[in-house]
Design brief:
Layout lengths: L1 E5 L20 H4 L4 E3 L2 E3 L4 E6 L9 E4 L5 E5 L2 E6 L9 E6 L9 E4 L2 E6 L2 E5 L13 E5 L8 E6 L5 E5 L23 E6 L6 E8 L5 E3 L5 E5 L15 E5 L7 E3 L2 E2 L10 E4 L5 E7 L11 E6 L4 E5 L13 E6 L7 E6 L5 E5 L8
Antiparallel strand pairs: 1-4, 1-28, 2-3, 3-26, 5-6, 6-7, 7-8, 9-10, 10-11, 11-12, 13-14, 14-15, 15-16, 17-18, 18-19, 19-22, 20-21, 23-24, 24-25, 25-26, 27-28
Length: about 375
């Protein structure tokens, strides 16, 4: 199922959400017990309602918002636009935009009416020059990379400088072949990487390496990028086990993953900034909440998803002790007897948050 997470507004939860602030969401409210709602346990400041069911979109890998403010989702062999015709907060139908990527896009980014996706042969362009919500023809390949696997190429985003930024896992084989600009801070990347690609997608540099398998990242209001990197589940009872971490993606800094049995300690002076540790899990979607609807208390909050344990977590950088990481706040999880495998999330024009689920054949929508 896909859910729309919003803030309370009496009996009209999906209209004019910017009017829904309740004391701006204080620290006391954020730590209040979770309440059950529609098969979920959700923080007091939030409500959760279904937006689309599995009949409209099954096994969703990624999601974006199109220029018209509509939700667009992708899974194996489809990209679909979910349409709420009567504006009641529920999707009424799905438009089949494309049957590519066939292996399921793990990232979607609009460029005008056209859509860039990560899947099949790499970064591909799905053109819709006439704006009829249907792809004009076969996908055009702009950068060939390994895709489709859980540790392959993942999130593509437009940076504040107008360049493209790409996140790839430790099995994407993003090595020195992809360093095609002499300005690249990392010349011989290893493991997972964060890349910067020229606006025409014809040349690239590697900014950081040493990630294990971060799926998504987000730029905050300052232009700083953050990601949620995975642990190594095989190490769980061993002394060198390191939990999932929310990291600042800093140019030239090795992110710390060397091998299955060797991780650089976070205490090393050249280690990345760790905003939070989240224990066991499988990190997926990341957003930086920059909408005005939540007020100052939630400004620049990072919302991150954990696929394995079905969690939506929040990290508020301004509320962290100086120089220290902080435990994330649990915002949403499944109620007992219910499943929840979130893969991506996006902020709607009204400030509410869409969350989709899928992966490994799980129900989407």
């Amino acid at each position: 199922m896909q859910f729309r997470v919003a803030w309370p507004l009496g009996l009209m939860p999906f209209l004019c959400l910017w009017l829904s602030l309740q004391a701006s969401g204080t620290e006391q409210e954020a730590t209040a017990p979770l309440r059950e709602m529609n098969g979920f346990r959700v923080a007091q400041d939030f409500i959760v309602e279904p937006f689309a069911d599995d009949k409209l979109a099954h096994d969703i890998y990624s999601m974006t918002i199109d220029p018209q403010g509509r939700v667009v989702v992708a899974g194996p062999g489809y990209v679909r636009i979910l349409v709420d015709d009567n504006q009641d907060g529920r999707a009424d139908r799905a438009i089949d935009f494309s049957k590519e990527p066939k292996n399921g896009a793990q990232s979607l980014v609009y460029h005008g009416h056209d859509l860039l996706a990560v899947g099949d042969q790499g970064i591909v362009l799905l053109e819709d020059r006439d704006g009829d919500d249907r792809v004009d023809g076969p996908a055009k390949v702009y950068l060939q990379m390994k895709t489709g696997g859980e540790h392959d190429t993942h999130s593509l985003q437009k940076g504040p400088d107008g360049w493209w930024y790409l996140l790839a896992g430790n099995m994407a084989q993003a090595d020195s072949r992809y360093v095609t600009l002499s300005s690249s801070p990392v010349k011989k990347p290893v493991h997972g990487v964060w890349m910067r690609i020229r606006p025409d997608l014809k040349a690239a540099e590697v900014l950081t390496d040493g990630l294990r398998n971060a799926y998504d990242f987000a730029f905050d209001a300052r232009g700083m990028a953050h990601t949620f990197d995975s642990d190594d589940e095989r190490d769980i009872s061993l002394p060198w086990y390191r939990p999932t971490r929310v990291l600042e993606l800093t140019t030239s800094v090795h992110m710390g993953w060397e091998s299955n049995s060797w991780k650089r300690p976070d205490s090393w002076f050249d280690s990345p900034k760790v905003l939070a540790q989240a224990g066991r899990g499988s990190p997926t979607g990341v957003i930086s909440y920059r909408h005005h609807a939540l007020g100052e208390a939630w400004k620049d909050t990072l919302f991150v998803l954990d696929w394995t344990y079905g969690r939506v977590l929040a990290i508020r950088p301004h509320a962290m002790p100086k120089g220290q990481s902080k435990d994330p706040e649990l915002i949403l999880t499944a109620a007992p007897g219910h499943g929840f495998a979130p893969t991506d999330l996006e902020v709607a024009p009204d400030g509410s948050i869409f969350i989709c689920v899928g992966g490994r054949g799980t129900q989407g929508g």
